[in-house]
Amino acid sequence: MHLPTKLFKQEPRIQLGVSLIEMVVFIVVVSIALLALVGVYRQATINNVDPIVRMQGLEAAQSLLDEILSLKYSGDTPTGGIPACTSCNDTPDADMNDVDDYRNWSDNPYPGYTRTVSVSTDAANTIKLITVSVDTPTGETILLSAERANF
């Protein structure tokens, strides 16, 4: 008897799954990628508050510097600033109406922030350098300076 050849011929099978080695390689690759992603996320979370702290410190410095610059050059300066004072009184007093009253002044505008002011006068007593320094809770120091002329 003659048997048909079709019975003994094996046809290629269609693969319907994943081998164990492929699955292990996939898990290792995904784990490495996930660790890198978590590391970036962690670093971003740690540094996320820095811009807010810096912005609050800058706002505290700028508002005080604007307040000081709007005042008279000296206690002897007339209202409007003209004519310029020739024998200016650079002694700080309690009325807070001129630039010198803020010399070596400090306060705490927000919890954890310290704001200090220094005022220095040039040799001719015509320009005062006002420097506002804000120390933030993160240890950063923000400095803003401006000059106020005697006019």
Amount of beta strand: 15-25%
Spatial separation of the terminal alpha carbons: 126 Å
Structural class: alpha+beta
Order of helices and strands: HHEEEE
Describe this structure in words.
This protein is α+β, with helices and mostly antiparallel strands. It is 31% helix and 19% strand. It has a four-stranded antiparallel sheet with strand order 1-2-3-4, covered by helices on one side. Strand 1 and strand 2 (114-121) form a beta hairpin. The N and C termini lie far apart (126 Å).
List keywords for this structure.
151 residues, alpha+beta, four-stranded antiparallel sheet, 2 helices, 31% helix, 19% strand, rod-shaped
Summarize the structure.
This protein is of the alpha+beta class and 151 residues long.
List the helices and strands and how they pair.
Layout: H1 20-46, H2 50-69, E1 106-107, E2 114-121, E3 127-135, E4 141-149
Antiparallel strand pairs: 1-2, 2-3, 3-4
